UniProtKB/TrEMBL annotation:
It comes from Deinococcus hohokamensis. InterPro entries: AAA+_ATPase, ABC_transporter-like_ATP-bd, ABC_transporter-like_CS, MetI-like, MetI-like_sf, Oligopep_ABC_C, OppC_N, P-loop_NTPase. It comes from the Bacteria. SMART domains: AAA. Residues 308-554 form the ABC transporter domain. It is found in: Cell membrane; Membrane. Belongs to the binding-protein-dependent transport system permease family. It holds the Pfam family oligo_HPY. CDD domains: ABC_NikE_OppD_transporters, TM_PBP2. NCBIfam families: oligo_HPY. This is Dipeptide/oligopeptide/nickel ABC transporter permease/ATP-binding protein. The keyword Methyltransferase does not apply.
């Protein structure tokens, strides 16, 4: 209850949706007070126009349309909510069981889910309702619930899989808790937001499906719902008779109900999706599990997925070592979109490759740690690494499209990636391939294509689909869209972001184009000369970057929207990474440099606001104090 109120307070959309829903519920509940007439009684003259006793006129059978509208709200809402609840319950049970039990159970549930997902919705609804004919409203509810559960199951399974690997679930299993207890007490509360969102989206699906089926005359058209009102209005030629209100009233009702469900759903998403959660530091929503909350909610929820500690890496060259990454510490939370920006040559790619164990000779990791969940990536054997890569994390880089074999259809290449990691059933491969292509904005027909038949943007989407094929927990993207034009870049980025939200994966996105990142990221880290010089939530960075380098970088790129302005580059060049840099690396190019200080010592990274840190003497409290004392 209090969570619901908090949700309403924090999301105006949810509040608007909730108010609308309440109004419609009142309409349904107070129906007998809103009209003295029965919705089915055929006691009035036919085709009466709106006015007086009949605010919406009458049907050709002499029924009061206003009475039908208010009483029809009852069944429409009942069908929407009940089918939504049943579908969500089935989806939740399926998704959680698949994630918890894994193995054969997961495979079987996945096949069933995929079969339902690939079957086209409306024909499935029509066929199932033909089978269950005669059961009145309940058969319609059952039909809609049976066809509406798979999306929820899919999304819940991927979230539950991530949860299944969390410490508190491992601990609960280790202490001998029964599967039911682990699922219901440990995992389910952590998925409450997602389940609620799934409930409202399936309720929306239910309302629209009922209207669609009723409009087609399937189901029990003697019942009064907004769907059957539309059916009768159309069957009796309401529009030809000029009685447009008979169509408009239930149509508007359905539209308002759909809007209410969608708004509440958006609101829940707004509050529970990792992007917003991160911004508001609302870790409580994820950490709402009983054990998580009794143990250490903040610590549990804040546990990073990728944790880099003092990572140093570079290249061994005949002229000596190039230290391209210098003691970088960086964390990425589950489901987070971290942007990594910086000029060319500042070490972004080296960091990405070193952190994911893809740095090849002459590249080396000098020191530091890189952990993915519980795994120490730098300590994995090649065999362990092979198992983890693609399944737990994947990487997409600028030249990735070149990994596509020109003589194989893209479908086979997508299958190969999945088969190499144990997905063998043909149905599963096919369903997953279609789903992935839809996710990255490609048409199913494109699966048949050879790489040369696709544009650069489409090829890069194929590679992104391959990277997502095994639903890794982390995808590192190193300038995946740089070679593409700005519009395609943006489209792909938006699709990546949508996929991330749906599957709950974390993304590290690397680019030198900061303006692009500002739109998409939860948090941004700015690299310069091998170091992270500033790190902050994206909005905060946009509103108030502190490091002079970040400011210059922001001024160097045109915004994606707004008037075109001439932008200036950053004068000067970054220092060579072959040398030791014992002072601020940006000193030579900095407009605010303080000689005697910035060229003599290295600024440490200090927190200037929650989650916002910067390595610059302008913001160092110690230096400010020194200056103050000198005054
Ligand atoms: N194979 C190599 N041998 C020696 N030095 C290298 C090698 N690869 C990269 N470097 C150097 O390492 C530094 C960091 O390069 P890196 O590619 O990581 O930067 P980046 O920020 O990703 O640049 P870009 O945006 O151009 O990809 C650069 O100074 C580069 O010259």
């Amino acid at each position: 209850m209090s969570a619901g109120l908090a949700l309403l307070r924090r999301s105006p959309r949810a509040a608007a949706g909730g108010a609308l829903l309440l109004a419609l519920l009142l309409l349904a509940v107070l129906a007998p007070m809103l009209t003295p007439h029965s919705p089915t009684a055929q006691t009035f003259g036919p085709w009466l126009r709106p006015g007086g006793e009949h605010p919406l006129g009458t049907t050709p059978l002499g029924q009061d349309i206003w009475a039908q509208l208010v009483y029809g709200a009852r069944l429409t809402l009942l069908i929407g909510f009940t089918a939504g609840v049943v579908a969500t319950a089935i989806g939740t049970a399926m998704g959680l069981s698949a994630a918890y039990f894994g193995g054969r159970t997961d495979e079987v549930i996945n096949v069933v889910t995929n079969v339902f997902l690939v079957l086209p919705g409306l024909p499935l609804l029509i066929i199932t309702s033909a089978f269950l004919r005669g059961g009145g409203v309940w058969s319609i509810i059952l039909v809609i619930a049976l066809t509406g559960w798979p999306w929820g199951a899919r999304v819940l399974r991927s979230q539950a899989l991530a949860l299944r690997n969390r410490d508190f679930v491992h601990a609960a299993i280790a202490t001998g808790e029964s599967p039911a207890r682990v699922i219901f007490s440990e995992m389910l509360p952590n998925l409450a937001g997602l389940i609620a969102a799934s409930l409202f989206s399936t309720a929306l699906y239910a309302v629209l499906s009922e209207a669609g089926l009723a409009f087609l005359g399937i189901g029990d058209v003697s019942q009064v719902t907004w769907g059957t009102m539309l059916y009768w209005a159309q069957a009796k030629g309401a529009l030809l008779q000029g009685a447009w209100w008979w169509v408009a009233a239930p149509g508007l009702g359905i539209a308002l109900l759909g809007t209410a469900f969608a708004l509440v759903n958006f609101g829940i998403d707004e509050v529970t999706n990792p992007k917003v959660m991160h911004r508001t530091r609302a870790t409580r929503v994820l950490g709402r599990g009983r054990r998580a909350s009794t143990a250490a909610p903040e610590a549990e929820a804040a546990q990073p997925l990728l944790d880099l500690r003092r990572l140093s890496a570079g290249y061994l060259t005949p002229q000596g070592p190039v230290r391209a990454v210098r003691g970088v510490s960086l964390q990425v939370a589950p489901g987070e979109f971290l942007g990594l920006a910086g000029e060319s040559g500042c070490g972004k790619s080296t960091l990405a490759f070193a952190a994911t164990r893809l740095l090849e000779s002459p590249g080396v990791v000098f020191e530091g740690e890189a952990r993915l969940g519980h795994q120490d990536l730098l300590a994995l054997s090649p065999e362990e690494l092979r198992r983890v890569r693609w399944k737990d994390y994947s990487l997409v880089f600028q030249a990735s499209m070149n990994i596509l074999n020109p003589v194989l259809r893209v479908r086979e290449q997508l299958y190969d990636a999945m088969q190499a990691h144990g997905v063998v059933s043909r149905a599963q491969l096919e369903a997953r391939a279609r789903e992935l292509f839809a996710l990255v904005g490609l048409r199913e027909d494109d699966l048949q294509a050879y790489p040369h038949q696709l544009s650069g943007g489409m090829k890069q989407r194929v590679v992104i689909a391959i990277a997502l094929a095994l639903e890794p927990r982390l995808v590192v993207m190193d300038e995946p869209t740089t070679a593409l034009d700005v519009v395609v870049q943006r489209q792909i980025l938006q699709e990546i972001d949508a996929v991330r939200r749906r599957l709950g994966i974390s993304i590290v996105f690397i680019t030198h184009d900061l303006s692009l990142l500002l739109e998409m990221s939860d948090r941004i880290a700015i690299m310069y000369a091998g170091e992270v010089v500033e790190e902050a939530p994206a909005q905060e960075l946009f509103a108030g970057a502190r490091h002079p380098y970040t400011r210059k970088l922001m001024a160097a790129f045109p915004a994606l929207e707004g008037p075109r302005e001439r932008r200036e580059g950053i004068p000067g060049r970054p220092p060579s990474l072959a040398q030791d840099i014992a002072h601020c690396p940006f000193f030579e190019r900095c407009p605010s440099r303080m000689p005697g200080l910035c060229d003599a010592r290295k600024p440490a990274r200090v927190e200037v606001a929650p989650a916002h840190s910067v390595a610059c003497f302008l913001h160092s409290p110690a230096i400010k104090e020194e200056a103050h004392a000198a005054d």
